[in-house]
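SAMPLE LOG
Freezer: B-3
Tube label: C17
Construct: single chain, 330 aa
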Amino acid sequence: MGSVSVLLVRPLAAALGSGALAELWGATDLTPQLLAEDDARISAAQFCVAWGELIRLSGDPAIALRIADALPPGAFGIVEYVCRSAPTLGEALRRWVRYLNLLDDAVVVGLAVEGDRALLRVEVESEAPAPASHELCFALVAKYARELSARPLRIAGVELAHRAPPELAPYRAWFDAPVRFGAETTQLIFPASALDAPLVSSDPALLAILTRAAEELERAVPKDASLTAQVKRTLREVLRGEDANVDLVAKRLGMTSRSLQRRLRDEGTSFNAVREQTRRELATRYLDDKLSIAEISFLLGFSEPSAFFRAYKRWTGGTPRGHTLSRGMA
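STRUCTURE (predicted):
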């Protein structure tokens, strides 16, 4: 189903304000602690529910436009900065399409040119659609395109596949263009000539650096938004020198131990099973890196090397030394 970076969720929480956040957390199983982790991701379903709850709790169907108006530059991290550093609007949009998966890999967006029109369009919709997220995306693209283009720019049109809100005037005013809901395709339409417009923020040297960094992030970004993956990431941080029990991990994730255990059961596992798997994976890595048994025992949170020996025998049927020797002969 895909996953979504918490960078896309933070503006929703900020727009809602502290008074109703408890309801948002309860409906989505999100937590402030999770949103504070820059590399954390959530499921597309959680993202969909978060948008629905934001609209319900705020009572504002056009809240995406209000978020776009208030959002500070740089809120979407390296993907945004890559686009800002591009030489032209067309290159910025191509970079947005190229690296969108760093923010949201549940949706596929493309850039096409048809005659005198350039179309930034949703090519593959999420299995758990969040229509207002497209409104926010298009609003921000229009906003920054106008601010950064060295030539005056007008949006040619906005087409959104989802149902129209009660009032269309705010959308027409924001985009200063025709806006149609219930369209066959969700797309933002520019004059094709606008793609050649230079950007005032262009920085070729910075673009090269940021592009390399974005490529690295693409290879490293966690794709799994499950709670199991979140627990494993937390365990890697707390195994060393701490009692990595369920209470500690639950506290780190901003939920109760009972809630954590329940959600892990829903995913077909348990806290103890995830901890064992995490330790086993790390043990293999540390042995391959030729760390000593004493070092590995400490890093994995075992009280003494003999406890690590017993655990390794249980996991693999062999010994740490046997693994090291077999790697040496490979």
